């Protein structure tokens, strides 16, 4: 099963149950409020908090908020609150302002609630779609537990040892199991809804989604002006490459349109210095914001079948040929080492839309003790 990589998913879904606990966890990046810096020094003497005592401010089963009626308890909320403090604000006072309006504590509370909402909405969506763990999923969970035990405890560790360790970083067994199960079901939901590699997605759905997101497929001939070590060629060599590019373009434009792509392919094989040519002989399929600006601007100005003028970038001189999209075009998604098909990428986009839409529509209600103005954060900060 390929690992799903959805760029639009928020940070919480990229965190493993052991996030922030060392190499076993996947580190995610928060989008901070303006003025927030994870490395900024405290504006006042470093604050010290007794986090064990802060955790005991409320019982683990105290309900902080509900998400579409599902209860989020203090243990879950506190884990996220502490984890982000430890990762981004260690030593800073919870009362310290980070943008002139929002305190560290308020920011952490907002993010903790956001993480809880995202996990609970995902679990609800999986239940709504009838997604259940398979034997393969159970083995994935078991392997994740074995890996966590080995990384955090050692080869001779047990699951009970792991739970004891997790308690020191404020993860209860129930929370660990909930997050592990929820995240394991996410790729299963992809397969159930869209099939392996997105095979259930029709050509029409694939292309409609890809066009909506501005995907383009482009072949190009790169007349490079840097060597294999990234060093610039001499001015004379650069000028020779520019001349070769212009002469090649003139030759392409001189033949009938029906013959241009065949000639383009011949020239691409003969002249192009693009190291990605072998992996992408049929061109690059990409969404806006992926390629260098000059390349993208020239590509977006073309209609399928169109050939660009000579385009200069930091890599050299390009001639571009825009292709019509096909569901099987190769796309390299951020975070993956191997290309996937456009059909697969479109299925990921649709699943992400389904999920983020559910998050946006979620009904979130704080309980009386944690509602705005209840003073819970002030009491916590003063502890």
Automatic annotation (TrEMBL):
This protein's record includes keyword Signal: yes
PpiC domain span: 216-324
A Pfam family assignment: Rotamase
Superkingdom assignment: Bacteria
Keywords assigned by UniProt, alphabetized: Isomerase, Rotamase, Signal
Signal sequence, start to end: 1-19
GO molecular-function terms, A-Z: peptidyl-prolyl cis-trans isomerase activity
PANTHER family, alphabetized: PEPTIDYL-PROLYL CIS-TRANS ISOMERASE HP_0175-RELATED, PEPTIDYLPROLYL ISOMERASE
Protein name (database record): Peptidylprolyl isomerase
Organism of origin: Candidatus Scatomorpha merdipullorum
Lineage: Bacteria, Bacillati, Bacillota, Clostridia, Eubacteriales
């Amino acid at each position: 099963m390929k690992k799903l990589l959805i760029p639009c998913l928020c940070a919480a879904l990229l965190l493993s149950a052991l996030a922030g606990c060392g190499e076993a966890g996947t580190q995610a990046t928060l989008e901070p409020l303006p003025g927030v810096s994870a490395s900024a020094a405290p504006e006042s003497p470093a604050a010290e908090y007794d986090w064990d005592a802060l955790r005991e401010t409320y019982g683990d089963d105290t309900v902080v908020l509900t998400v579409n009626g599902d209860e989020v308890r203090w243990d879950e909320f506190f884990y996220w609150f502490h984890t982000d403090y430890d990762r981004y604000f260690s030593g800073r006072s919870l009362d310290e302002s980070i943008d002139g309006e929002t305190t560290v504590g308020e920011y952490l509370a907002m993010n903790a609630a956001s993480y809880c909402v995202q996990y609970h909405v995902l679990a609800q969506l999986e239940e709504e779609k009838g997604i259940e763990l398979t034997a393969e999923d159970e083995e994935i969970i078991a392997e994740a537990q074995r890996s966590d035990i080995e990384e955090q405890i050692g080869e001779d560790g047990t699951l009970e040892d792991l739970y004891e360790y997790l308690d020191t970083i404020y993860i209860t067994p129930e929370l660990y199991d909930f997050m592990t199960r929820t995240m394991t079901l996410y790729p299963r939901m992809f397969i159930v809804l869209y099939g392996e590699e997105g095979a259930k997605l029709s050509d029409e759905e694939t292309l409609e989604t890809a066009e909506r997101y501005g995907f383009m497929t482009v072949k190009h001939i790169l007349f490079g002006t840097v060597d294999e070590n990234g060093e610039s060629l001499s001015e004379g060599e650069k000028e020779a490459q520019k001349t070769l590019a212009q002469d090649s373009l003139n030759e392409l434009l001189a033949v009938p349109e029906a013959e241009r792509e065949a000639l383009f392919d011949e020239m691409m094989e003969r002249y192009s210095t693009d190291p990605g040519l072998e992996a992408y002989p049929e061109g690059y399929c990409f969404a806006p914001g992926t390629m260098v600006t000059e390349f993208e601007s020239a590509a977006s100005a073309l209609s399928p079948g169109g050939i660009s003028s000579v385009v200069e970038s930091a890599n050299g001189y390009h001639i571009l040929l825009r292709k019509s999209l096909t569901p099987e075009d190769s796309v390299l998604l951020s975070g993956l080492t191997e290309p996937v098909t456009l059909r697969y990428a479109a299925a990921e986009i649709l699943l992400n839309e389904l999920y983020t839409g559910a998050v946006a529509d979620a009904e979130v209600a704080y309980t009386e003790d944690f509602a705005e103005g209840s003073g819970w954060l002030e009491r916590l900060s003063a502890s």
